[in-house]
Amino acid sequence: MRVYTRIMDMDTCICTGLRQAAFDITEIYDSYLEPSGLKITMFRVLRRLSSAEQASITELAVIVGVDRSTLGRNLRVLERMNLVAFEEAEDARSRTIVLTALGRTTLAKATPLWVKAQTKMRSVLGEELKSVFVAMTKVKHAAEAQ
């Protein structure tokens, strides 16, 4: 288990510490989701697409909170797995992304696993969870103000 004891030292990079924590959390979620064949990055895209039913790449990038190129790479993997499909939109220059039947089934299988990962992280963070969300919100506002 990694212990972030030096987070307040002046020579410790906050960005590096947060990136490492994000990597560690991703590993936890990925291990819980492994039986579904998904990683947390894939689950996030499928879950957001499921709530939108269909979306353009630009719309889905905004919903998921990533840039178009990152989303495009993720979508190509999901398309190869037959979890999403691209359909021609009314405007021939754009395409719409939809969840396939297999995508819906896979998401349904993965959701209880994700809930278990959430429960694990709630247990790990305990009473500090609210502080974590407050800190994340502050970081988001600082980034938006740039």
UniProtKB/TrEMBL annotation:
Molecular-function GO terms, alphabetical: DNA binding; DNA-binding transcription factor activity
Domain HTH marR-type, first and last residues per copy: 1-146
Keyword list, A-Z: DNA-binding
GO biological process: response to stress
Protein name: DNA-binding MarR family transcriptional regulator
Family matches, as PROSITE patterns: HTH_MARR_2 (PS50995)
Pfam families named in the record: MarR_2
InterPro entries recorded: HTH_MarR-typ, MarR/SlyA-like, WH-like_DNA-bd_sf, WH_DNA-bd_sf
Keyword DNA-binding: yes
This protein's record includes keyword DNA-binding: yes
Source taxon at top rank: Bacteria
